[in-house]
Known about the structure:
CATH architecture: 3-Layer(aba) Sandwich
CATH topology: NADH Oxidase
Number of strands: 4
Structural class: alpha+beta
Oligomer: single chain
Low-confidence stretches: none
Amino acid sequence: MLNDTALDTLFYQARTHNGWQDRDVTDAQLAQLYDLLKWAPTSANGSPARFVFVKSKEAREKLAACMSPGNQAKTAQAPVTVIIGMDLAFYDKLPQLSPAVDARAWFVGNDELIRATAFRNSSLQGAYLIMAARAMGLDCGPMSGFDNAKVDEAFFAGTTVQSNFVCSIGYGDVAKVRPRAPRLAFDEACRIA
């Protein structure tokens, strides 16, 4: 079991951030972040997530223009906002990623399975990104308030990748953190069968 400090970092004291300190997140930190999250499990090791680390001022402004009004300013201000995309041709990498079986054959021609698997597993990989960032001492602000079609056109045009969600990463401004919202109790959300 992790100690209380680690659990606080990952869960109990971790918060969604809406404002950011003027501190850089380095390219080396982003590479380390990916190196951590890539080891977490996905179906057949398919790893369908594709990450665009939006860091330059021009790219941040381009992404902010795709965001809902309430998310525009914080996206433009964040040192990095990651677009977590899902590659709908992820199964073409399965011979490399899952060599023990012919997992690619499970997906070819099955658009419903491709989309469901890509969405589910890229969502998982986005959650792994959040946990890895927190473990590295970075704060996160995940968001789904944006125009997917605009993000896809701006950042994934001509590819098989579509946007899933975005997550700002940096050093949060604690003065802009909202009060902690409640969570459901075990007996409201769970049952043991």
